[in-house]
Specification:
Number of helices: 4
Order of helices and strands: HHHH
Distance between the termini: 80 Å
Largest sheet: none
């Protein structure tokens, strides 16, 4: 290559690279928002499950334990509607993505409810 060829900026490739980079950053921010939504919904569902589950007995079992699972399922279902409100691309999400969202909600629900049950005053 001659000196003049290396000094000239590439007109087409710079704009395409910048567009790809901005798209990747936008996708990354949307994934972070979806994960945060799943985590917060899991924590809220865990707190509500503890509150509405009733006073735990000596084995830390609540009388309305089935209601906890219903609240967990509701939190997972509410995510789709929340994503629509937040304008996150729900049609682009596949089965693996929804499984991840559901698992994150379940994990934070389980952690929150377990902490609340083990630290509750009997």
């Amino acid at each position: 290559m001659t000196e003049t060829e290396t000094d000239l900026p590439r007109i087409g490739s710079g704009t395409k690279a910048e567009r790809l980079r901005s798209e990747k950053q936008g996708d990354h921010m949307r994934r972070i928002a979806r994960t945060l939504a799943a985590c917060f919904l899991g924590m809220i569902a865990g707190g509500l499950s503890f509150y509405f589950g009733g006073t735990p007995n000596e084995l830390a079992v609540q009388p309305n334990a089935l209601l906890s699972l219903v609240l967990l399922a509701a939190a997972i279902v509410v995510q789709r509607h929340l994503f629509i409100l937040l304008r996150l691309d729900t049609p682009r999400l596949g089965g693996k993505d929804w499984f991840y969202q559901g698992f994150m909600t379940f994990a934070l629900w389980f952690i929150t409810q377990t902490i609340l049950l083990t630290t509750s005053v009997r």
